[in-house]
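Cross-check.
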Amino acid sequence: MTVKIFIKRKVQDKNVVELTMLLKRLRSLTLEQPGYISGETLNRIDKKDECMVVSTWRSVEDWNSWVNNAKRIEVQTQIDKLLGEDTEYAMYSA
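Predicted model, tokenized:
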């Protein structure tokens, strides 16, 4: 069963360039991860500082394997530090 992961972040204008570089690095790592199907980044219209990534995975196990990937954790830690708060995740079945 495929799963969709909704990843919400709040971004300030001053962080956009550095965040973009970190997200590109994270995306390139994701492409190498078994079970990854696709991802899409959306910018919220009514709240300019909020963005949502919708990531599709083959299974919960594949997603959990990615969540526990040391390289992902390293980049995600940098993202959360830059943004000053933890990234929010929600998992849904497709």
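The CA atoms of residues 38 and 79 lie 20 Å apart. Residues 3-93 form a domain with the Alpha-Beta Plaits fold (CATH 3.30.70.100). Passed to J.P. for a second look.
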